[in-house]
Each structure stands twice: as structure tokens, then as C-alpha cells.
Amino acid sequence: MAISFNETNKVFKLDAGASTYAFMIEPNGYVAHLYYGPEVASDAFAYLYRPMERAFSPAAPGTTAPESRDVILQEFGTNGVGDFHAPSIIVRQGNGHTVTDFKYRSHQIRKGKPALPGLPATFGSDDDVDTLELSLYDEASDVEILLRYSAFRKYNAIARSVQVVNHSAETVHLEKIASAALDFADGLLDLIHLPGAWARERSVERHPVNHSRTVLESVRGLSSHQQNPFFALATPETTERNGEIFGAALLYSGNFAAEIELDQFNQLRAQIGINERTFEWTLAPGESFTAPEVLLVYSRDGIGGMSRTFHDMFRNHLIRSYWKDLKRPILVNNWEATYFDFDAKKLLSIARDAADLGIEMLVLDDGWFGRRNDDRSSLGDWFVNEEKLDGGLGKLVKEVNQLGLKFGLWFEPEMISRESELFRAHPDWCLHVPGRGASEGRNQLVLDMSRPEVVDYLYETICKVLDSANIEYIKWDANRHLTEVGSAVMPADRQKEVSHRYVLGMYELHERLLKRYPKLLIEGCSGGGGRFDAGMLYYVPQIWTSDDTDAIERLKIQYGTSLVYPCSTMGAHISDCPNHQTGRINPFATRGYVALSGTFGYELDLNKMNDEERAEIRKQVAAYHKYNHLVAQGDLYRLTDPFNPGTVVVIWEHAAKDGSEALVTMVQPRNVPNGQLFRVRLCGLDPAGVYKEEKSGVCYTGEMLMNAGLNVPRYERDGAGELFHFVRI
Ligand code: DGJ
């Protein structure tokens, strides 16, 4: 077992890979956090418990001043008994008060890890993971919280989740519930997080924490482009390659908040969970609420080490899809090729070129249904537009299949156009607040996914389409954020449940579709990468990373995304130039080097390619088949940082886990005349191995490549790039 409890000193010790996490039951019954960091064999951590008298720090009833909750590091923040940090839980009781005072009640340690009802969760066998369930109890309210810790044996990873149970005879209201709180004794850390925008998702920001409460959040209904449900805390000296870092990724796709608060003693509380701004949950007597899971990762091998653990955890213990370890078909998506202006003839002529070039799937994007010729109508009317697709999907898909290609289709299940049959039939099915207008985004409204009949309608309609033809992939889009989040069927005092119920309804729809079509490949999407989160990866093995397909912009977007999410999950396509988002012109080959680092495809009109471009596509297709195993299953090393203004060439390495080969891509975003000369050290190789670089035929020892490094070529133009393949001989 990787989890132990010492009856004598009352210390719980969790060993996850090469990391250890420890806390204790205090003599007064509270649970104090003691340690999180590199592995320690002994469990004698109680010496770290530090009661200390402080002026102005009140003692909770029955405790002494030195044990004030103001001072003691805790496993879960209390509310109203002297812990002045942001609370981890707020329960409004029948008497209107929100004070709670949770103390240890019991615990259970067992092998394996339970699933979370209706929510995404990491999984593992009895040999992979052990789980501690810690029961804390507040006597006055008769409410219990169950803190669950699952320590993965092979990885520096601990999954945490929380369940709240109302044992009392009265209804209580949950106003806030964090999924995990982490108190740090030495809080002078750097906060790293991933803010962004549409077409500029997941930039990397890093700054020292200060004596204030920083909140990273989404209140947009979806996890959002603007902030990702992730944060990391690193020691100031931590770099990409070295040093300590603690990462937390929330497995949730709706409104979240991460709070990071450095206190008066330089102790720090970090917590993450559902955003309290848009949340409340009614718990009738006997009812319980389960908060989403958070995955904690510890690394002493820098930011890169943290990323590689997240990647391994997500690939092995979160993504369930049939496709998770399979090579994904190379696709061509018609969106940037045709936008709404297509018919079966045009699609088939793209498919014919695709087949000739070795592309494996045609994806028909937005505009195939209802009367949708622009973005003003038809969302919700998921039946084929026969004016565009004469003979329907059955005929088109058959012809595409006959060319040897698979077929994929775009949906935006959660949305509804005012101008649609669905809206005319069910005007109250959209989120809205009576007596107010409904804000529109991209001319559309949002369906009330908290209503079972809406989920049923979508399930049945989507099944009908999927059953009508051999559709092997769907792109699941969501092109606006949620406003006027009200449900026509929820009572007044439960309207604040709707944001979370929306996410549960969306997850349920995924679950039902996957159950019925277990081999269906689903690509998540939200106006590009607006719902790229660990929660979605439980349902879909890949997500469209951004609507910005410019290779140079993608260097940053994919870098930021890769801090947490594996390359096997990142949709990356080669698109036309001048690029539709930036107007930039990048070499065709470079667009390929960048897209090879994700799930690979094309987003352009293949009919317009000249001979040179067609030849390049053939090369790229061959490169995908040759190298994808390294990208999808290998270890990622980010050798230079595109966010650093001093970076001249952006360099990525994908190394085989056994060190037998590595793919290195170099891209120079902007030419600097007579610029720097520098070397780069590779990683993850066998120091004693001899590696041959395929193109040049030059041999190096692994030690040379990792210690002495390689001379980075000087490229002479904007957007130039190159690919190197090292194979141990
Ligand atoms: C946003 C997506 O990110 C695009 O790729 C495309 O599918 C459009 N929506 C279609 O409306």
C-alpha cells in the first residue's frame, strides 16, 4: 500500500511515485497538513506540526491559542472559527449561519480508486493506486465531508476529491466547495498559470505570489479560452529542466476558481474547485454532493517534469476512448477550405485529392444541417440540408468511404439558433431568465443542458444522424459562453445550481453517446480551444487546440497547452496561407513541423494545391506515419521557450520512453539578421548510446547530444524550420 496511517503519531503518509504527502490528526481533532514534496521513507512527520501563539489569532472552541486555525496548516479550510484564509467549504444551515468546524471522524484506506458519479475521474487498478477516504464531521450542523486522496504508485500524482453529506434533519445549502486545498509552509513561490483569449489560448504567465488573494477563474460556463483550470506553484529558482514545482489540474469543464493566498506568516493556501460565484447546491436531509476531482502532480525535475507526469497520467489513467492509444486518422477538415459554401460535389472533389495524397478522413464542418448557410440559423436542427447534400449523408459518406476515406461530422450540440425549428417548438429550452432578454453570441443561444428532456432530445437526434451513415468521428463544438444562466424548470431557490447542472448534462450526453458508439472518435472544441481541460479528456481523446492555425502562433499556443495536456490530445492542422487569422505566410514545410506535434490534419482546400505543395503533403503524411508514435506516446522536452523574448529558435523534442529515438523540430519564428549562434542540449537519451541523425547521417553519442548539445543551424528567413530524427544504432 502506498498509503499508511501511524496510530501512534496519528500521521497519514501517502507515497505517490517519488513524492510524499503527509498530514496528521491533531490532539484537538482537526487535521493538520504537514508535508508535500520529494519522497521520505519515514512517517515521523509530526515534528513539523507548529502550534504557535500569535496576537490576534483566535482559538477555536475547545482549543488553545497556539492551535489557532489562523496559524496551523490544514488539509481543508474551516469557516468562521479563526481560519481567515479563503474557506474550502461554506455550508449555509437552517439557522442562516455558515460557520462549520470539521474534525476528524474516521478513515478508510483501500486499494484502487472509486469512480465519481456523473463526473470525470482518473482511474487505476488495485495495483496502480490506493485511496484514503478521510471523514471529517461538523457536529453542530451534522454535516460530513469525505476527503478522498488517491496516490498513484508509479507517478508523482495524487487525485483528490470531496463529497459532502448532509446527515441532519434539515436542508442545508452548499455555497462553496473546493475540490482540494493545499497549504504550504514556505509560500514564497512563483505562480504559473495559463491565461489566454480566443485564438490565443493558454499563454504561460509566471509571477511571484504576493500578500493578496489571486483568483484564476472562469464564470463563462465553460472552462474557457481566458483561463485554464490549472495552476502550478514553483520555487523561484525552478526552470523548465530543474527545480521543484507543484501542479494542480481540475477535471472539470465549467466555472472554476483557483485561489492562491499568501498569508501574514508567508504560509500559502492554494485551492481549486467549482467557482462559488455561480454556484449553490441544496442538500436535503440524507443527500450528498460530489465535487469534481483535482489531480496534483509534484516534480523536482522542473516544469518539464511536471508536464511529463501530467501527460502520462492523462494518457494512462484519464482518457478512456477506444482511440487513446491508436494512431488517429489524418484528417482534412473543410472549414477553412469552404466555410459555409459547399455542396456534395465540392466535398467529394476534396475527398478525391485527399485519398490521392494519403489523407485518411474527410471531416465535414459547420453548415450541413437545417438551413444553415451562415451562422444565423439552424443550430438544434440536426437533420441534413439536402439542398447542399443531395441524397443526404448516407450517399455522401458512402462515396467518401468508397474513396478509402473515413468520414467525420461537426455538431454543436449545446447550442440553439432562434431561427430554427427547435426554437420554434421549444422556446423555453434555452438558458434564460424570465422577464429579461437573452444575450446572443455568434447569433445563438445556449440550450439548458440541466434539463433531462434536452439531453434526451440531443441524444436521440444525434443518434439518428450517426445511424444514418458510417460516421466515425464527430467534432463537438461550442461557440459561445453562457449568459442569463436560468432554467425554466428549476425553482427560484435552486437557480444557482444551473451552471453545474449544465456541465453534468453535457457530460451525461457524452457518456450516453460513448456507451452506444464506443469506437466513435470525438474531438472536443469550443471556438478553437475554449474547453481544453482535463474533464473533457475523460470523454474525448483529442481537442481542437485553437482556431488560430498560424504555425508561428501555434508555437506558443501548443507550448502553453503542453504544460498540462499531452500532444496526443492536441488537434493541430496545416492550413492555408496567407493564414486566415493572422495574414502571415509561413513555409508549407514549417506548418507541417508544427502540426506534427499534435493530432495531425489539414484545414485547407486540397483542390487548390500546386504540385510543390502536393509533394510536400505527401512528405508530411509519410512523416506523420513515421514519427507519430514518438509524439503520441513519447516524452516531450520543450528545449526553448517561445514566450521568452530572447528565444530565436523554438525547439521541441519528442523522445521514445526507452531512449531509442528522438524527433527534434526547430522553427525560427522571425529572422534576426546576423543573429545569435547557440547550442541546444537534448534530453531523454541513453548517454552511452550512439545515435545517427537520419538526414545528415552524422553519429553522436547520447552523452554528446545531452551534455555538449547540438549547434542550432542559423536560419535565414521568417518561419524557417527543420526536423531531425535521431535513432540509436
Ligand atoms: C469554431 C471551430 O473552432 C472551427 O474550427 C469551426 O468548426 C467553426 N466553429 C464552425 O462554426
Could you please describe the fold and organization of this structure?
- The protein is an alpha+beta fold and 729 residues long.
- The chain folds into 3 domains: 315 residues, Beta-galactosidase, Chain A, domain 5 (Distorted Sandwich); 208 residues, Aldolase class I (TIM Barrel, Alpha-Beta Barrel), CATH 3.20.20.70; 91 residues, Golgi alpha-mannosidase II (Immunoglobulin-like).
- The chain has 12 helices and 38 strands.
- The strands form 7 sheets. Strands 6, 7, 8, 9, 11, 12, 14, 15, 19 and 20 form a 10-stranded antiparallel β-sheet that branches. Strands 21-22-23-26-27-28-29-30 form an 8-stranded parallel beta barrel, surrounded by 4 helices.
- A hairpin with a 5-residue loop joins strand 3 and strand 4.
- Helix 6 packs parallel to helix 7, helix 9 runs parallel beside helix 10 and helix 10 packs parallel to helix 11.
- The longest helix is centred in the C-terminal third of the chain and has 23 residues.
- The mean pLDDT is 97.
- Bound molecules: (2R,3S,4R,5S)-2-(hydroxymethyl)piperidine-3,4,5-triol.
- (2R,3S,4R,5S)-2-(hydroxymethyl)piperidine-3,4,5-triol (DGJ) binds next to loops.
